[in-house]
């Protein structure tokens, strides 16, 4: 199922903050509405953020009153600046924004032609993401054995992508190939993407899934209940994989228990120009930690840390499953800007 669609000058996508209790469809008409949806995680997950960013600029093109190419380009640049300000860590947001803007900057033709070209480029980014996820699933499913139990963290499913998912794409592909697998989903505090979204998707698809709190991951591994870990990624740099906060702890636990730890991500999530220390980790509002939903669970005025992502050093990663290949430890030593991905 498509998680994001262009429909007559609007963008249609589910409001992920309401799932699993309410299935509400958002209809976005402006760059500002898309920016708000990104900021508040109504639209979330690195690959979906890429498509959302591109469609956000398409909304900018559609709503612009520009009469000339240079006026339209100025409006698109402003849309790009607004979109990029919303979340700093997932590289797909920046990659897709730059891809659309670079196309627009190079465009030579009529203003109406550019408007159409921007919408078409956004659609292309979405279509490519969907195709890449099926390829990731196909590649990754070769690693999964009949009877495996797989632990995943956060939501790297259909809801985090344009279609099918990355980590859950691998799980889906293995399931569709007839392998009798089971999934253990970490709830993923503070925003509960695992509890709310991963279990929702897998239960709907009939794939056996068991929910645990994040602090139970060590227990289930120590009891021999996990065969593999598969997670998604928000940015893969020269020395680490950025993903939802808590991924690093899961990777260390997997290492300690000799459990393979795989990352599934499209190449649009790679940013081999930098190292982990150079990446900005999004710091979110304290009330996500002091509250569970609307219920306050901590004293008034308490100091809070709320980083949304962490970096897992590549030494803890058994392999990275992409749309074209599975990169393993021997490839990581070559990770640099010229690494031939
Ligand atoms: O803050 P979120 O919900 O956007 O974070 C999402 C994740 O960390 C996912 O694991 C990641 O984007 C991979 S999605 C295929």
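^ Assign residues to that structure.
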């Amino acid at each position: 199922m498509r998680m994001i669609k262009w429909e007559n000058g609007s963008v249609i996508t589910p409001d992920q903050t309401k799932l699993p209790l309410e299935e509400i469809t958002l209809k976005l008409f402006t760059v500002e509405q898309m920016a708000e949806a990104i900021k508040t995680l109504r639209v979330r997950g690195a690959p979906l953020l890429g498509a959302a960013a591109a469609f956000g600029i398409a909304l900018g093109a559609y709503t612009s009153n520009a009469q000339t190419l240079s006026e339209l380009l100025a409006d698109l640049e402003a849309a790009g600046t607004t979109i990029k300000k919303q979340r700093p860590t997932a590289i797909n947001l920046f990659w897709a924004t730059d891809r659309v803007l670079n196309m627009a900057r190079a465009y030579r033709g009529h203003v109406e032609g550019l408007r159409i070209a921007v919408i078409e480029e956004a659609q292309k980014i979405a279509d490519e993401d969907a195709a890449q996820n099926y390829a990731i699933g196909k590649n990754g499913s070769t690693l999964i054995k009949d009877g495996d139990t797989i632990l995943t963290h956060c939501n790297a499913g259909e809801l985090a992508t344009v279609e099918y998912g990355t980590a859950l794409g691998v799980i889906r592909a293995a399931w569709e190939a007839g392998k009798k697998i089971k999934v253990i989903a970490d709830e993923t505090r503070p925003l509960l993407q695992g509890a709310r979204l991963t279990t929702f998707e897998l239960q709907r698809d009939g794939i056996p899934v068991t929910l645990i709190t994040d602090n139970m991951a060590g227990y289930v591994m120590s009891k021999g209940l996990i065969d593999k870990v598969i997670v998604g990624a928000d940015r893969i740099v020269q020395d680490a994989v950025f993903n939802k906060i808590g991924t690093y702890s899961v990777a260390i636990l997997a290492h300690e228990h000799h459990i393979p730890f795989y990352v599934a991500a499209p190449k649009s999530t790679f940013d081999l120009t930098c190292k982990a220390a150079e990446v900005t980790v999004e710091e979110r509002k304290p009330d996500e930690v002091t509250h569970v939903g609307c219920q306050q669970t901590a004293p008034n005025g308490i100091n809070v840390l709320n980083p949304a992502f962490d970096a897992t050093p590549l030494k803890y990663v058994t392999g990275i499953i992409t749309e074209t290949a599975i990169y393993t430890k021997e490839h990581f030593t070559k990770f640099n800007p010229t690494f031939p991905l």
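Residues 337-341 have pLDDT under 50 and may be disordered.
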